Amino acid sequence: MPHRLDPGEKRIQALLWLVLFSISLLVLALFRFQILQSDKYINLAAQNRLRFIRLPPSRGDIVDANGAILATSMKVFDLIGYPQDLLKDESINILERVFLRHGIPFTKDKIKATIKKQYSVPYNAVTVLSNLTIAQVSDLVSDPEYPEFLYPLPVMRRVYPTGNLLPHVLGYVGEITKEELESLGGKGYRGGDIIGKAGVELIYEDQLRGEYGEEAIEVDARGRRVRVVDRKEPVPGDRIALTIDLNAQSYAASLLGDRKGVVFAMDVRNGDVKVLYSYPGYDPNALAWGLSSKEWALMLKDKDKPMMNRTISGTYPPASTYKLLTAYAALAEKKITPSTTYYCPGAFKLGNRTFRCWKTTGHGTVNLEKAIRESCDVYFYQVGLKTGIDAITFWSRKFGLGSPTGIDLPGEASGLVADPVWKKRVFNESWYPGDTVNYSIGQGFLLTTPIQMARVFAAIANGGKLVRPRLYAGRAVEVDDLGLSDRFLKILRNALYQVVKSGTGRLAGGYGVEVSGKTGTAQNPHGEDHAWFVGYAPSKKPEYVAVALVEGGGHGSSAAAPIVGQVLSFLCRGPR
Questions:
Q1: Closest CA to 399 of 318, 309, 278, 498
Q2: Percent helix, strand, coil in the chain (nearest 5)?
Q3: Which among 29, 98, 182, 263 would be 20 to 30 A from 11, CA to CA?
Q4: Nearest in space to 512 (alpha carbons), one of 563, 454, 568
C-alpha cells in the first residue's frame, strides 16, 4: 500500500519543487545573460568607461603642374567633449563663462545647438569649438575654471596659399550640411565633417578626404582620461597634381587686372588646362575657415557675381569669333569656295531691315580669307543665308557647342545653339531669315562659354580633334576625331594667321611667337560691348590655345587680343 504524505510532508515537497524551479530560472537567466547576450552587456559596460575620439585625416595637397602648393592643410586645434558630459546644465554654464571671458561669443543656446547637431551616441566625441591656434588653446586651458571634460584635439585645416588667384579652379571646403549628410549616407560622414564644396575640392572629394582614424580611451567616473586603450591612425588623403601653371595663371591675372572677364588657355593636343582665370573672384580661405551667414548672403547677392566661374558658366554671344564656324559650315556644305566673293558697301538690306557692317564705309569686294581677316559682317550675312540655319547649327554642335566640354569642374553651362524648333517652342514664333543673318556673325539666339570657343579653335589648330579639357593630370586624356576636312581646316588656319599678321588681330602679335586667332565684339544689352579674342600658337605647329573675354571691354582687337598674345608667348617661350 503506497505511503500517503501527511500535510507537513506535502508542504516540504512543494517547497522543494519551488526551490528547484527557482534555481532552474536562475540558471536559464545566467545562461542568457552570460552566454547568449554576453557581447551586448560587455559593450554596455565598456561604453560606460570607454570614449571614442574620431581622428580626422590630413586632406591631400593640391599642387600645380610644377609642384607648387595650391591647397594644403595646417595644424590647428578643436575643443571636443562627450555629449553626456557637455549637455549638463552645469557644464553649459561653465563653458559659456569661460568662452565669454576669453572673448569667444559662444552663448548657451549656440553651445547646445552645436553639440546636438553632431550628436549620435553619448560616447562619441563632438566638436565644441574649431580652428583654434596654439596660443588660443593655451589661453583657454590656463583659465582656472577650464573644464576637465573638454579636450584639445590637434586637427588639420585647409589653407589656400594662392588666395584669390585660383578660387574657381580649387573651390573650397566647408562643414557638411544636413542635406549633404543625407545624400552621402553610407560613405562614413558625420555631422561636423569637412568636405569639398566647389571646384576641384568637390570633384575629387573621394581622393582628397582620406580615411578617419579612431582612438579609444578609458575614462574614470568623472569622465577624465585614464589611458589609451586602442588607436587606429587616420590615413591622409591623396595628393592631386593639376595641369595648371601657377606662373602663367598669375601672369594672366595681371594682364586682365581689375576688368571683369576671363582668361583661359589649354594644350591643343591633350586638353591640359594651363590657365583658368575668372574675375572677379573670392578668397577660398575665408569660406574654408567660416563666414557668417550675413557675409555669405552678401557674397551671393554681389552684382559682380564673384562666385560664378565665368570661364565655364558665363554664357555670351561669341560674336565674330563664331565666323569660323559659319565659314566651315559653308565650305563643308559646298555653298562657297575660298574664292567666292561678295561686295560689302557697309550694310546689307534684307526686306525692310538693314544689317550693318562694323566698318560703315564697307570693305568692298571680299573673298573668304579677306572676310575673316577684316571680319567683314556683310560677307557672312550672305554666306549664312546661303548656307542655311540647319547646316550652321549642325556644324556648331559638331564642334561641341551647345554641350558641356566635360572639364572636371562642377557647374559647367551648356550654352545655347538655338534653331527653328527651339524658337517655336520658346517663343511660339517661326524662324526668319533675319535670325540667320544675326546668327552667322555670332549674335542673336546663340550663347557660348569661353571654354567652348577655346575648344573650337583648338580643333581647328590640331587638325580636327575635339579635346576634353582636364585639370587633374591623373585623368585620362580624351580626344574625339571629328573627321574634318584637312583642306578646309588649312584654309581657315591660313585666314586666322592673316588676322594677326595684317588684320583686326594685329595687337595679338609682336610678343615673340607667331599667333593665329580671331577678334570678336559682342553686343551687350547692359552696357559697353564684350571684347573677345581666341587664338593659338605657334601658328605653324600649334601647342596652346587661349581665349580672353573682357566684359564691357569694347573692341576685341584692342582689349582682348593683347592679353591672348602675351599669354601664348608666356606659355610657348616662358617668362621674359
A1: 318
A2: 40, 20, 35
A3: 29
A4: 568
DSSP labels, 62-75: EE-TT--EEEEEEE
State how far the Cα of 39 lies from the Cα of 43, in Å rounded to an integer: 6
Q: What is the 3-state secondary structure (H, E, C) of 352-404?
A: CEEEECCCCCCCEEECHHHHHHHCCHHHHHHHHHHHCHHHHHHHHHHCCCCCC
320 in active site: yes
Q: What does each of the 576 residues of the chain score in pLDDT, given as a tens digit?
A: 455 666 666 677 777 777 777 787 777 766 665 666 555 545 544 455 777 778 888 899 999 999 999 999 988 888 888 887 888 888 888 888 988 888 888 888 888 888 888 877 666 778 888 888 888 888 888 999 998 888 888 877 899 999 999 999 999 999 888 899 888 877 888 888 889 999 999 999 999 999 988 888 777 765 666 787 788 888 999 999 999 999 999 999 999 999 999 999 999 999 999 999 999 999 999 888 777 677 778 888 888 899 999 999 999 999 999 999 999 999 999 999 999 999 999 999 999 999 999 999 999 999 999 999 999 999 999 999 999 999 999 999 999 999 999 999 999 999 999 999 999 999 999 999 999 999 999 999 999 999 999 999 999 999 999 999 999 999 999 999 999 999 999 999 999 999 999 999 999 999 999 999 999 999 888 889 999 999 999 999 999 999 999 999 999 999 999 999 999 999 998 776
Task: Give the cell for residue 209.
Answer: 578626404
Strand stretches in 287-363, DSSP E: 342-344, 347-350, 353-356
Q: How far apart are CA 456 and CA 439, in angstroms?
A: 17
CB count within 10 Å of CB 68 equals 14
User: Strand 151-159 and strand 69-81: pairing?
Assistant: antiparallel
User: Alpha carbon of 237 to those of 58, 195, 233, 470: distances in Å?
Assistant: 6, 12, 13, 21
DSSP letters, 168-186, are HHH--EEEPPHHHHHHTTT
Instruction: Quote the distance between the C-alpha of residue 155 and its chain's center.
Output: 25
Q: Do residues 501 and 509 make contact, with C-beta atoms less than 8 angstroms apart?
A: yes
Residues in Cβ contact with 365 at an 8 Å cutoff, skipping those fewer than 6 apart: 341, 342, 343, 344
Residue type, 379: Y
The DSSP bridge partners found for residue 465 are: 481
Amino acid, single-letter form, for residue 440: S
C-alpha cell of residue 290: 567660416
Contact 411, 309 (CB under 8 A): yes
- pTM exceeds cut of 0.70: yes
Beta-bridge partner residues of 519: 533
CB 551 within 8 A of CB 526: no
Quote the CA–CA distance of 115 and 124 in Å, as a whole number: 11
Whose cell is 593639376? That residue is 242
The tally of CA atoms less than 13 A away on the side-chain side of residue 264 is: 33
Question: What does the alpha-carbon distance between residue 519 and residue 532 come to, in Å, rounded to a whole number?
Answer: 6
Choosing from 130, 320, 375, 440, the catalytic residue is 320
How far is the C-alpha of 516 from the C-alpha of 263, rounded, in Å?
A: 17
